[in-house]
Amino acid sequence: MRIATFNVNGVNGRLAVLLRWLEETTPDVVCLQELKAPDGKFPATAIEKAGYGAIWHGQRSWNGVAILARGTQPLETRRGLPGEDADEQSRYIEAAVRGVLIGCLYLPNGNPAPGPKFDYKLRWFQRLANHAKMLIETGAPVVLAGDYNVMPTELDVYKPERWEGDALFRPEVRAAFAGLLDQGWLDALRALHPDAVIYTFWDYLRNAYGRNAGLRLDHFLLSPAIAPRLAAAGVDRDMRGWEKASDHAPTWIELADTPLKRRRRPVKES
Q1: Which of 54, 72, 127, 202 is deepest in the core (most CB within 10 A)?
Q2: Which of 92, 106, 148, 199 is catalytic?
Q3: Neighbours of 20 (CB within 10 A)
Q4: What is the CATH number that goes with domain 2-255?
């Protein structure tokens, strides 16, 4: 089972890119972030023609998340995180797909920090942590995938000294991510490739992609019930070089049908 996460940076403006990638890679499940489209403008018909059922939680101009499933319809289990009823930002959706519970998330950026946007980011992270703890306690096989807007370690950022004080790299945010791991979640890419330089985002400015001046912002966290099935993980890095590409590249994992005795395979960047 191949599960991918992709901050599409505008699902309608980059629909041709998305459809090409779906056709070439045929992931079983896709978590999309930053749809930048209200519910009524989500391209459901085009995605259905590509062979995917979909659920989505859209928002005009900003945010928005979706889960696609090849050859089936995701069974929605949650829309939005609990804990802040007044929050109207579309950043979380959850569904069951082929026996796996998939949480698709788009964590707030939080800049400028400190400030109200950073405070909101920390509150949202705490709400995610509360929900994630509940999910682990169910014992279900769960994957939390998406754009976390955090570089967990210095290995995950090009020239980390330039990011000190940024909301994506501040100690509070990195500690919040570490807190999720302390609950028992597995950082899938790092579990398989602990020392590799892996980026999932390259800014449009200053030839960042050409210089490989990137960030690892897109993560998969696996619950203890499903972590032993992790077989492979990688980034479709070349897609970042396509015409009209998102500033993120799709990140993916492969899950075996049964637990594996050991994990292997180098990171793949196709």
Answers
A1: 202
A2: 106
A3: 14
A4: 3.60.10.10
